[in-house]
Amino acid sequence: MSIILTGKSALYRVARLRESDRAPGQQVTEYPMKGIRFVLALALIAVTGTATAAVYTWKDASGRVHFSDTPPPNSDAKSVKGATGSSVAETEASQPVAKTWQEKEQESRQKKAEQAQADEKKKADQARAAEKERYCASLRKNIAMLERGGRVGSPNESGEFEFYTDEQMAAKAEQARAQLARDCK
Q: In angstroms, what CA-CA distances link 151 with 40, 140, 144, 169?
C-alpha cells in the first residue's frame, strides 16, 4: 500500500489510512489542526505561568532551608528572583561580541600550525629514540662479541686488517661498557 503525502497533518493522514479498516457505516474520526493548536496554546500558557511565579525561601526551627510559592505565616521568608526575559538580554550584553569569521579562521590556522609543529617535534623525538636504541643495541652486540673472544680486529692506518690481542679486546669491551652506561640509561 503506498502513501501519498500531502500538505495535510500527520494525524489526519493516520485517520484516513484507517478508513479502509472501518466497518461499513462507521464514521471516520478526523483530528482537526485547530483543536491541536488550541491544546498546545493552553499548555504553553500553563508553563509560562509557572515560570514567572514568585518563590520564597526560609529556614525552619531545625535550620533546614525550604522553598515554596507562598511564604509561611510569622516567618522571615525571602523572595527569590526567578528567571525573567530581561536576564537573557543582560547576559547576552555582558558577553563579548562574537568573533568574526576572519578571527575564527586565523585561530584555526594558528591551531593547525601549532599542531603541525607538535607533530614534527614528536616525529623528531621518535627518530632520536629509534637512533639511540640502534646505537645501544650495537654497543651491546660489540660487548658480547668482545667478551666471546675469537678473531676480532679493525683496519689500521694503512688499511690492513689488524686483529686485537686479549688485552686490547678487554680494554675495548670496558670502553664499550662505559659508553653503554653513559649513553643508554
A: 98, 18, 13, 10
